[in-house]
Amino acid sequence: MSTNTEIDADARDRLLDLAAEFYDQFAGGEVPSMQIPTRTKSNIEYDDDKDVWVYGDRHSTRSANTVTGAKKLLKAIYVIDFLAQQLDEDRSSTLRELYYLSESWDHETAQFSSQDESNQLIEDLEIVSDVTREDFHMRPEESGATLMGPLHLREQTRRGERDIHCQEDVGEGGYQIPNNPDTIEFLDNDADFILCVETGGMRDRLVENGFDEEHNTIIVHLKGQPARATRRITRRLHDELDLPVVVFTDGDPWSYRIFASVAYGSIKSAHLSEYLATPNARFIGIQPTDIVEYDLPTDPLSDSDVNALENELEDPRFQSEYWVEQIERQLDINKKAEQQALASRGLDFVTETYLPTRLGEMDVL
């Protein structure tokens, strides 16, 4: 296993190789440029060997033959210089800090006009260098996602190693997932499966009802659209501990996309699908059939909900027979429901009836 020092040195070398490539192009009389995969729904395809969604063959070119292109490459050089220095000093920064830090750069043209612009450039550098932003020592703002369950792990921190049991050594809030889960070593576990939960309210209900203890499950709080660290630790738990993964969300198109980002990868980070996505994850969220069967409290679909569902029917991640059937059923009943709607049948219904029934049908329980 590579040490942190070796990983940092490799990340720094790859970044500097990119800068050197721009210089070599310029010295050779070529217009400096770099190619980036087109990050659109039409340019993702399923990789049968890796069981994940990845970018296809379409690319866009960042070239200095236009003023706009030249500015983008200039900004890339400034960011590479900053990241290389950051790695040299074994320091880290947040994506937000990078945006503000550019205000101090000596060349005004290299400064970012928005955080979206700086975020996209970091993603570009990930793709062309084949190094993750975590290995650049770049952090998002805190996601606050947690896990709770029968898992004993060892975490590497700046103050040294610490061993933690994710039930016995944590409070009701659980163990907070670090920005880079690859610093974690799994020591031991008594888990039978992983349950990824969209909302904090439902996560708290499951913990209060002792679902993690009764069913030996690791409950991962996704906290809405899951951060990369959350998806990464889920993938590692699945692969390294050989645990099935199920994803429990609300019953609406936006929640289906939360599931898709866990299972299939997101369009935005398709270059990291093999690293972040868990292709064997299964959906256990509120289905249109559940809305009807349990007569759940609902809201009508909004125009944006309908549009999102119709788009999902064209999304390559939702082309299975199951998803087409569920989406068409939801459009037909014109309703959506939250996880907490299960409380209409009692606070214990979700842990005593709904989840055990669904998990039993999946042969997880």
UniProtKB/TrEMBL annotation:
One GO process term, biological-process aspect: DNA replication
Any matching Pfam family: TOP6A-Spo11_Toprim
Domain Type II DNA topoisomerase VI subunit A all-beta: 141-190
Annotated PROSITE patterns: TOPO_IIB
InterPro entries according to UniProt: Spo11/TopoVI_A (IPR002815), Spo11/TopoVI_A_N (IPR013049), Spo11/TopoVI_A_sf (IPR036078), Topo_VI_alpha (IPR049333), TopoVI_A (IPR004085), TOPRIM_Topo6A/Spo11 (IPR034136), WH-like_DNA-bd_sf (IPR036388)
GO molecular function, one term: DNA topoisomerase type II (double strand cut, ATP-hydrolyzing) activity
Cellular component, GO annotation: chromosome
Reactions accelerated catalytically: ATP-dependent breakage, passage and rejoining of double-stranded DNA
Domain annotation Spo11/DNA topoisomerase VI subunit A N-terminal: ranges: 71-137
Required cofactor names: Mg(2+)
E.C. code: 5.6.2.2
List of catalytic residues: 100
Top-level lineage group: Archaea
Keywords for this protein: ATP-binding, DNA-binding, Isomerase, Magnesium, Metal-binding, Nucleotide-binding, Topoisomerase
UniProt: Mg(2+) binding residues: 198, 250
Topoisomerase 6 subunit A/Spo11 TOPRIM domain location: 193-359
Family (UniProt): Belongs to the TOP6A family.
Binding partners and assembly: Homodimer. Heterotetramer of two Top6A and two Top6B chains.
Main function: Relaxes both positive and negative superturns and exhibits a strong decatenase activity.
Name of this chain's protein: Type 2 DNA topoisomerase 6 subunit A
Organism of origin: Halocatena salina
Native organism taxonomy: Archaea, Methanobacteriati, Methanobacteriota, Stenosarchaea group, Halobacteria
Gene name of this polypeptide: top6A
